Amino acid sequence: MIGHLYIVAAPSGAGKTTLVRLLCENDPGIRVSVSHTTRAPRAGEKEGREYHFVDVQNFFDRVGQGEFIEWAEVHGNYYGSSKRWIEAELTAGRDVLLEIDWQGARQVRNAFPEALGVFILPPSLDALKERLSGRGTDSAETIARRIAAARDEMRHVDEFDYAIINDDLRQALGDLQSVISASRLQYKTQRQRHFALFATLL
Ligand code: ADP
Ligand code: 5GP
Predict the structure, then answer these.
(1) What angle do CA 85, 90, 92 make, to 5 degrees?
(2) Is the CB–ligand 1 distance for residue 12 below 6 Å?
(3) Single pTM value for the model
(4) With contact defined as beta carbons under 8 Å apart, do 35 and 80 qualify?
(5) Best label site of 3, 53, 122, 172, fewest CB within 10 Å?
(6) May I ask the CATH architecture of the domain 5-201?
(7) CA-CA distance, 113 to 109, in Å (whole number)?
(8) pLDDT tens digit string along 178-189?
(9) Is 81 in contact with 98 (CB distance < 8 Å)?
(10) Is 81 left (phi over 0), alpha (psi -120 to 50) or beta?
(11) Residue 177: which residues within 8 A CB-CB, separation 6 or more?
């Protein structure tokens, strides 16, 4: 049985990490891919938990070895998702979620056309600015660069299957859970999961 592949994208600060963390706390059936990045760890981030932190040389060695199902430069750093890990999880029937940008999402869709894309939007540009400053983990210069990049990222919302507006956190979490619940009820999935029942009923 093949698991579902979900892609979650958002402009930085829209609340993607917060939403995905809450989603996973409530749904242990979802595995989040841990990307490799050349970005420096933020305070509180741990190697192997948020990311695998590597230098540029190491990153491009991995690119050369075909290790990434997708990779991209985002905000001046490189990020990539492990092909082997994702394929192993999906083949084992587990659902996998990728937190990646629109460039990576395009590459994943080429490899897995059935992947479901979810785009998280902020309720306003002002809210986005406030959230980026409030997080307190980035310098003023980094925040300014990310706000400028947010509009470019959001222009790609039309490449995704679902758009969730993260105004009220609980509502947005419920929306994300609904997307995932609905995908699991697709006939194809239900038939595989309840093979014996379908055989008896039909
Ligand atoms: P991203 O991963 O998209 O960059 P984060 O999840 O780190 O964003 O969220 C950015 C900041 O906004 C964090 O301080 C987070 O607590 C806050 N935040 C997330 N969702 C909401 C929301 N619905 N309302 C208010 N603040 C939020
Ligand atoms: P951050 O540095 O704030 O954790 O992430 C910055 C951006 O990089 C976010 O838009 C995030 O989705 C994206 N990102 C994180 N990991 C990957 C990845 O493996 N591939 C791609 N393409 N983008 C990623």
Answers:
(1) 95
(2) yes
(3) 0.94
(4) yes
(5) 53
(6) 3-Layer(aba) Sandwich (3.40)
(7) 5
(8) 999 999 999 999
(9) yes
(10) beta
(11) 23, 26, 27
Residue with token string 């939403």? 19
CA 169 to ligand 1: nearest atom? 23
CB atoms within 10 A of CB 48: 8
14 CB near ligand 1 (under 6 Å): yes
* Cα 125 to middle of ligand 1, angstroms: 13
pLDDT tens-place string over residues 32-82: 999 999 999 999 999 999 999 999 999 999 999 999 999 999 989 999 999
Domain locations along the chain: 5-201
Q: One-letter amino acid identity for 23?
A: L
Residue 80, φ and ψ in degrees, nearest 5? -150, 150
Handedness of CA 79, 85, 90, 91 (dihedral sign): positive
Task: Decide: 169 in ligand 1 pocket, CB within 6 A.
Answer: yes
100-103-106-112 Cα dihedral, nearest 10 degrees: -40
Alpha-helix runs per DSSP H in the chain: 16-26, 56-64, 83-91, 102-111, 125-135, 140-154, 169-184, 187-193, 195-201
